[in-house]
Specification:
The protein is α+β, with helices and mostly antiparallel strands. Helices cover 26% and strands 21% of the residues. It has a domain of 127 residues: Cytochrome P460 (Chalcone isomerase, 3-Layer(bba) Sandwich), CATH 3.50.70. The chain is built from five helices and five strands.
């Protein structure tokens, strides 16, 4: 009996879905519940005033985005170069300032969260496997962003790994290269960038 229990525990430890204590949670009507402890998850990277739209206007003060992923999915990615089912990636947006304390140059993050987006892999629930949810400045459960919105097609057309922008996560991109899990679309984008004349 003890041997069977140990075997079951070992199997669960090897299965990131079974062992995922941070899997996405939903309300009865299908809204995503914001993970309360996401800031205790694995930090992936921060971007400064990033936009995927060439016509986007720069904000008066640069905006930071911080990206976190549930630890079980991070460990699975390190092992395989791919995201397992029930991956949850949280991106929070914060404002910035350059005036404060002893700072003389550059910007640092300031104030509360001004917006939040969550990218969820749930292959049973969502067509295509992934879905986006926007929490704006509220922690109330959020409805799925409609699949017709541009975020889906943009991620599908340009993401480095499994519709996620691993190309902006410097600790994960080398792992994806090592496991040869980079998407054909991303490799094509990279080749075109290298071939383009310097501007």
């Amino acid at each position: 009996m003890a041997a069977m229990a140990a075997t079951s525990f070992a199997a669960a430890a090897d299965d990131p879905v079974s062992a995922n204590t941070h899997a996405p949670a939903y309300t009865a009507d299908g809204k995503l519940i914001l993970p309360a402890d996401y800031r205790e998850w694995v930090y992936l990277s921060s971007g400064l005033d990033m936009s995927y739209n060439p016509k986007a206007m720069a904000s008066p003060s640069p905006m930071f985005d911080n990206t976190f992923v549930n630890p079980e999915s991070y460990r699975a990615f390190v092992r395989t170069g791919s995201w397992p089912d029930k991956t949850v990636i949280v991106l929070e947006v914060r404002g910035s300032t350059g005036n404060g304390s002893i700072n003389q140059r550059g910007h640092y993050q300031s104030g509360g969260v001004q917006g939040m987006e969550v990218h969820v892999k749930d292959t049973v629930r969502f067509q295509g496997g992934w879905a986006f949810f926007s929490f704006d400045d509220s922690a109330a459960p959020a409805k799925q962003i409609p699949v017709a919105e541009a975020c889906y097609s943009c991620h599908s057309a340009h993401a480095a790994v499994d519709t996620t922008f691993v190309q902006f996560y410097p600790t994960l991109l080398p792992i994806a290269r090592q496991h040869a899990t980079l998407s054909a679309a991303y490799l094509e984008d990279t080749a075109e960038l290298l071939e383009s004349p310097a501007k």
